[in-house]
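I have been asked to look over a protein record a colleague put together. This is what I was given:
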Amino acid sequence: MPPRASHLSRISLTDGRWAATTDGELIRLTGLGDGDAFEQLYGRFSKRVFGWALRWLRDRSRAEDATQETFAAVWRSASTYRPERGPGAPWLFAVARNAVVNETRARVPVAAAPIDTPSNEPGPSDRAETAWVSRRVHLAVAELPDELRTLIELAYWRGLTQSEIAMHVGVPLGTIKTRTRSALARLADALDGDVRLGDRETM
C-alpha cells in the first residue's frame, strides 16, 4: 500500500537528497517499493495533478478523488514504467488522465431503462482531450532542433531502434543515445509547461 495521505502532506519539497533525482528515477524506485521516492513523487506532482484534474472535472471533491486515485495507481503500476519509452512526467500524467476519465464515468447516472446500448466509443470530451494532447506533442516535437526532431520521428513515429537510427543517420550509437535523452528532456519540459499553464487557469 502507498504511504498514508496524512504523512504525505508533510513532505518537504526542498529535500536536497532528492533534488537532482529525475521524475523517471523516482517512478522506477517507487516501482521497487521505495516509499521515500513515492513521497517525493507525490510532493513534486500532487498540486499539479490536482489543478489539472480540477480544470477538467470542475469540482474540487471529484478532483481530490481523482488525484488520490492517480497516486494509488502510480504506486500500483510504477513497476511497469520504462524510461526508454519516455520521461517520467508524461507517464504520470497519462495515469492521471485515466483517473480523471474514470472519475467522470463513475459520476454519470445510469438510466433505469436505457433505450440504446451504450457506445464504447470515446465521448466528445475524451476525443477533444486526446486531440489536444496529440497536438501539443506534435508542436513540441516541431520546436526541437532538426537533429533532435529527426531522432524522435524515427524512434516514435517510424518505430526504429536506436541502433537502426544510428545506421540510418550515420551517427555513432553513443551520440544517438545522448541526443535522444536531450530530446526527451526538452519534450518533458515543454509538456510540463503546458500543465503548469493549465494549473494557473484554475486559480
Notes: Residues 4-14, 109-113, 195-203 have pLDDT under 50 and may be disordered. The radius of gyration is 19 Å.
